[in-house]
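We treat protein structure as text, and this decision shapes the records that our systems exchange. Such a record has a labelled line for the sequence and another for the backbone structure tokens. The record that follows is passed on verbatim for readers who wish to inspect the format:
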Amino acid sequence: MSEKKVSVLEGFKAFLMRGNVIDLAVAVVIGAAFTQIVNAVVKGVINPLVGAFGTKNLDSYSSCLKGTCREVNGEIDGIKIMWGSVLGATLTFLITAAVVYFLMVLPMSKYLARKAERDAAKEGAKEIVELSELEVLKEIRDAVVAQSQRGSGHDRA
């Protein structure tokens, strides 16, 4: 039974030491820190811009679906749709997606495309060198064959 525990622990250790698990952990930590930045941008920049046309707090935007939506004895009378919260979350998502795309995805894809072009150019140059070496070897072979044929032709004459 101790052998099984060792193999399970070894398997767990191997799982933890895989590169993608570490990458995922780093991504979660960076994502959490990045979320705070985006929330600060929404709260400090977007909400005040929206506040120029109404209130600074997007959460206060709502519509009443049914009833009067007045607070009576601590309870809301009617059905209140809090569309301002959805708008704020949508803006946060769009800002996050834009920053991730323009600061991370786009530069990385351009880098990978340039790297692929360089690799293709290196491979093309390698093929040209291999072809030229092959051509030289063919010429040497043809010269040796021609020379041996001339040598055998002189012996007969």
The chain has a mean pLDDT of 79.
